[in-house]
Amino acid sequence: MKKLMTLWALVLCYALNAQTAPEKAPAIGSVSGKVIDKILQQPIPYATIIVKSSEGEMITGGITSENGSFEVKKLPEGRMLFQIQFVGYKTYSRDIEISRQNRKLELGTIALEEEVAELEGVDVVAERSTIEQKIDRKVINVGKDLTTVGATAADIMNNIPSVNIDQQTGNITLRGNANVRVMVDGKLTNIPIAQLLQQIPSTSIKSIELITNPSAKYNPEGMSGIINIVLHKNANIGFNGNLNMGLTHGIEAKFNTSLDLNYRNGKFNIYGNYGTNIGKYINDGRIFRVDENSEQFFDFNNNNKSHLFKGGFDFYINEKNTFSFFTNQNLFNGKGLGITDIVYYNGDFPDEIQFFNNINDNHSQQYNLDYKRDFAKEGHNIELEIDHNRFESDEDANFDFEGGTGIIPDYMDFVDIERDQTFINLDYVNPLSEKSKLELGAEARFFNTDIDYQSTGLTFNANGNLRPTPSTNFIYEMDIYSAYATFGQNFEKWSYQIGARFEDVSVKADTNTVRAFTDKYTQIYPSAFIVYRPGEKNQYQLSVSRRVDRPGLEQVNPIREWATPLISSFGNPSLLPQFTNSAEFNYTRRLKNGSITAGVFYRKIEDEINRAVYIDELDENKLILTFDNFDNNSSFGFEMSSNYRPTKWWNFNASFDLFSQKQRGFVGTDEVEVTNTAWNARMNNNLIATKNLTFSIFGFYRGKNKTLQFDVEPMYFINAGARYSFAQKKGTISLNFNDVFNTMQFAFDGRLPFRQTGDFNWESNTVFVGLSYRFGSGKNRALRRKNRDDNTKQGSGGIL
After folding, report:
1. CA–CA gap between residue 543 and residue 587 (Å, rounded)
2. Would the CA dihedral through 212, 216, 219, 221 be positive or negative?
3. E strands present in 432-471
């Protein structure tokens, strides 16, 4: 069972305080074995090993590795007490004896029993958030201190190291790059990422995994890697549940609720989840063009309602065979009003106002089947998974104008989208020996997108004459066939893994039944990891990989994404994929009361995809935003994060990341190159007042950075919160005051293609109140369903 990092700190205290007593006999022996969960039969990493003398004095100790194994050396001759401790489990004790005839004791597999009384109820959320560095990912265990920050996943993402959310667009970046894939429980999603993050209640999130340099087992999409959102799961025997409710209020109110239910009996585990987010969102901003002395004022009001339903079951056919099924149903209704007011202070042009009203309804459906077969040898298994996802969206948009030249009349746009994607994935794992493991897999993925666009408006043709806006039907298809192999070995201090993924990809794009673009390519994506652990306190990791960024739908769609009187955004159906070779080095130091992780990375990018900003040939006062491929590029960066508990009543997480990258793109008629060096700092403090009352203070600072058009000013905020537990900690009440000093703002100064300044604002200054309560029998919590809590083999999300 994966423990939260609150437990990790306690484990380290034991391990690092273990001191060798003066030897009364020669150090001639050792003891080794493996520690597992008795019910789940899964390894328990970082369990504390303690060896005491017969008088109770500490002799030495250690911790178990990732696979639960341990070996304690330099034991003296004689009788000793051997113990294994891990928070939430009963302590294991036994007498051992080292003699010259029996120097190496092999204890075999030791199964720990959980302390059921301490873990009653459903999947308990940690008191505080922690950061854990694993061999191929950084895991942020989301505690109650972070869940109070806001109602949704989007609200807490800016608290995660190296992750940033654009509050205006909802776009997510990792290490300063938007080429990142987002998954939920290791599954690709068909929901637009900005909408998905608004739909997931923050209280439903167990952890967030940052996989910045994935191995060949993972799909290779995403230059900056993969973000996997792991939701709470529960499979206690009997009936159990968890209820969460939250209210966020800024200028407008936003409500979120979630209800998780689970029933486990015998060979069946049945579960269901419902979550909803309902709220109004207000944004505003301005852009001032210096040379023409004009200003654009923007006001955006959105009224969104989303409902998520998940239901499924696990059928344990026997100890070796498990069959699982689940479905996700996501319903979204959004109503928006956007007002763009253009004022020409010199009177060179008539002032103009655009009113934009839209209604967007969409429905995402996911159906997932999984069959897993375990063989006699531990860890030897084969797994087949089939996942089908369908997304349907209808948008009706009205554009009304006041003032201006009156040449362009009011009009309406209608955009219908249908997307289907199907994965068929087969994985095979074979531990060839205690030190070696082989993994093989094959996968077929099929993507199909059909966009139908109709408009009642008029547009200028190449001759400058008005004509009806043509209807457009855009079909984008992509088929991917792949296979991978990885091989790894673990030694006393060293471990490594090498692998490669082979892919064959074909792409077709049709516009109004005319073949607009085709692409076909075959690539091999190698990866390698090396880990060195000279002792219990230090770990070094080096990894290299090759990845790909296939153009996303918003980047290839030639149909209008959005428009104002002076700016329109379109995709480029001829975009080619970009390829990235990356290297990464990380170091983890375990301290007496915490840990520190630091790392550096370097990326070499081929055929880079970036923004292009063109001046409209038909109106030089208007801009067109699109995408294009550019020459090779590179970027590098540094990251550091820490967990530390200075006192019993104060603990904190802190992180710092810095990255530098070149950006190329077209602005106006010129190709522009800028070097952007930016940095972010975050710190989350948790203060324990009483057994049931805690306070938190979170601070964030983002340094100045550059884009192709703008120099962006620094951004910063401070959040403060409190949490109170009641009903024997089955219930909690959370209160959070976000952006206490109302300082969060996107402000910029630009020179291309026009000299301009501006700023955008949103409801960052808010108060959040949340209630969480868990109920049920809570019997035998260890019997959780085995449906791949950490299974991220599906790779990246958000492709199309």
Report:
1. 12
2. positive
3. 436-455, 458-460, 466-468
Contacts of 21 (CB under 8 A, 6+ apart): 53, 57, 58, 59
Arithmetic mean of pLDDT over the chain: 82
Q: Answer yes or no: are the C-beta atoms of 468 and 460 closer than 8 Å.
A: no
- Distance between CA atoms of residues 603 and 579, nearest Å: 10
pLDDT digits (tens, 9 = 90+) for 546-555: 988 888 777 8
Pairing of strands 514-532, 538-549: antiparallel
- CA distances to 25, 283, 496 from 81, rounded to whole Å, are 16, 65, 34
261-268 own/partner pairs: CB under 8 Å, 24+ apart: 262/122, 262/234, 262/235, 262/236, 262/776, 263/238, 263/239, 264/235, 264/236, 264/237, 264/238, 264/240, 264/783, 264/785, 265/237, 265/238, 267/315, 267/316, 267/317, 268/313, 268/314, 268/315, 268/316
The radius of gyration of the chain's CA atoms, rounded to the nearest angstrom, is 28
Residue 680 has which token pair?
């972010």
Pairing mode, strands 538-549 and 253-265: unpaired
Contact 326, 368 (CB under 8 A): yes
Query: For residue 558, which amino acid is it?
Result: P
Q: Torsion angle, CA of 343/346/350/353, rounded to 10 degrees?
A: 0
**E-strand stretches of 78-177:** 78-85, 92-98, 104-112, 130-133, 138-141, 163-165, 172-174
Q: Which of 579, 447, 605 is nearest to 522 (CA)?
A: 579
21: exposed, middle or buried (Cβ count in 10 Å: 0-12, 13-18, 19+): middle
| pLDDT tens figures, 765-793 | 999 898 888 887 654 433 333 333 333 33
Structure confidence by residue, pLDDT tens digits, 346-393 = 988 899 999 999 999 999 999 999 999 999 887 899 999 999 999 999
665: tokens are 């793109």
Burial class (CB in 10 A: 0-12, 13-18, 19+), 777: middle
Residue with tokens 């952007």: 676
Round to whole Å and give the CA distance between 780 and 776: 12
- Give the C-alpha separation, 360 to 362, whole Å: 7
> Do the beta carbons of residue 295 and residue 345 sit within 8 Å?
yes
Q: Which two tokens stand for residue 519?
A: 């692409």
Distance between CA atoms of 205 and 186, rounded to whole angstroms? 13
DSSP per-residue letters across 700-767: EEE--EE-SSEEEPPEEEEEEEEEEEETTTTEEEEEEEESTT----EEEEE-SSS-EEEEEEES-SEE
pLDDT interval class at 621 (50, 70, 90): confident
- Helix count and strand count (H, E) for the chain: 5, 47
* Beta pairing, strands 27-37 & 69-76: antiparallel
- The H-assigned helical ranges of 473-595 are 553-556
Of 36-45, 104-113, 499-508, which range is least confident? 36-45
Cα dihedral 339, 340, 345, 347, rounded to 10, equals: -100
Instruction: State both tokens at 357.
Output: 């009203």
- Prior bond of 753 cis (ω within 30°): yes
CB atoms closer than 10 angstroms to residue 615: 16
Burial of 638: CB neighbours in 10 Å, binned 0-12, 13-18, 19+: middle
Contact 508, 556 (CB under 8 A): no
Question: Are the beta carbons of 157 and 200 closer than 8 angstroms?
Answer: no
Q: Is 669 helix (H, G, I), strand (E, B) or coil?
A: coil
**DSSP assignment letter at 20:** P
Q: Encoding tokens for residue 66?
A: 């990732």
On whether the CB atoms of residues 410 and 397 are closer than 8 A, the answer is: no
pLDDT > 70: what percent of the chain? 84
**Encoded amino acid at 381, one letter:** N
The CA-based dihedral angle spanning residues 657, 661, 665, 669, taken in that order and rounded to the nearest 10 degrees: 110
End-to-end CA distance of the chain, in Å? Answer: 34
